[in-house]
Amino acid sequence: MTSADQVSRLLALVPYLQLHPDAxxxxxxxxFGVSAKxxxxxxxxxxxxxxxxxxxxxxxxxxxxxxxxxxxIRLSNADYxxxxxRFTPDEALSLLVALRAxxxxxxxxxxxxxxxxxxxxxxxxPALPRVAVAGGEEAVRGQLAxxxxxxxxxxxxxxxxxxxxxxxxxxxxxxxxxxxYGYLQAWSPxxxxxxxxxxxxxxxxxxTSTTYVLPGEPPEFGAGxxxxxxxxxxxxxxVTHEAAWIAEYIPVQQVRRLADHVEIDLLVADPAWLRxxxxxxxxxxxxxxxxxxxxxxxxxAREALDAYRAx
Length: 311
Hints:
There is one protein chain. The chain has helices at 3-19, 25-31, 36-46, 64-70, 89-106, 110-123, 138-150, 225-228, 271-281, 295-309; strands at residues 23-24, 61-62, 72-73, 75-76, 152-159, 165-166, 169-178, 181-188, 193-198, 202-211, 233-239, 254-257, 262-268, 285-289. The chain folds into 4 domains: 3-81; 89-123, no CATH class; 138-222, SH3 type barrels (Roll); 233-309, Alpha-Beta Plaits. It is α+β, with helices and mostly antiparallel strands and 311 residues long. The strands form 4 sheets. Strands 5, 6, 7, 8, 9 and 10 form a 6-stranded antiparallel beta sheet that branches. The chain has a 4-stranded antiparallel beta sheet with strand order 12-13-11-14, covered by helices on one side. A two-stranded antiparallel ribbon has the order 1-3. It is built from 10 helices and 14 strands. 38% of the residues lie in helices and 24% in strands.
C-alpha cells in the first residue's frame, strides 16, 4: 500500500467519521477495505494533520481513550474537511468517458444516464467526443442480455480473428468492454470450458428454450486473457533499435535487445491489427516470424504502391 493510497483514504475518512460519529473501528475498517490495524495507523497519522500552525487548536483531535477502551472512533476539530473529496477535472472527464462507454454497450440505463447527465453539468463537457465501442449490433446485445438473464443456450454465427466461420452453441454469462471492444464470455457445453467472443463478430442469434446451470463464474478478463484465448497466435517481430519503442505501447511477452536489432515476442488475436502495426513500422521492421503473419501487410503495401504508380 502506497502513501498516495493512504492520503486518499484519509481525505475520505474524515468526512465519513463526521457523518458517523462514534463509529466502530472494525466496521469502519471493513468499509474502507483495510484491516483494523491499518485503520489505527491511519488515525495516528491523522492526529498530526490540521491547519497550518500546528498548535493544539489547529490539529484534528481523536479520542484515543474511547478507541482503546471501547473500539469507538471519536473525531473532532475537523470541520474544514466536512465535505467529501471532489473530482479533479481530469478525474471527472475520465469517469464521464468510461460511463459513456458503458452506455454504448449496455444501452439505455436510468442509473448510467443520470450519472452521465450530472457529470456533464458538473464538468461543462456535454460536447465531449462520443466514445466508440466495437460492441456489435444493439439487437445482438439485447438478445444476449436476455439469454444471460434466462440462463439459456443460444447459437449464433461467428467469425474469428482468422476469418474462420463457426456456429457455436453456448450459455452466455457476461458482457463486458475491454480496450474499446465489447466481448461475450460464455460457457461451451461441447468443450466443457469458458469461451470469449467479440460482439462485433457475432450475428444471427438463435435463442433456445433449453436452460443450463453454469458451473460457476467466468474467469476474470484480466491481463492474462489474451494468453488464454484460443485465437491468439505467437508472433516475433525483429525491429531496429529506433523502432523498439513499440514494446512500450503494446502488450508483449518478451523483449530481447541485441547489438544490431531488437526481438519482440507478442501474441496476436487480430490479423488486421498486426497488418496495421507492420505498415506503421515501415523500414523499422526487419523481419516477422512466422512469415505468413506478414502476408496481408505485404499485399496491402503492394496494392498501395500500384495505386500510387497508376497515378
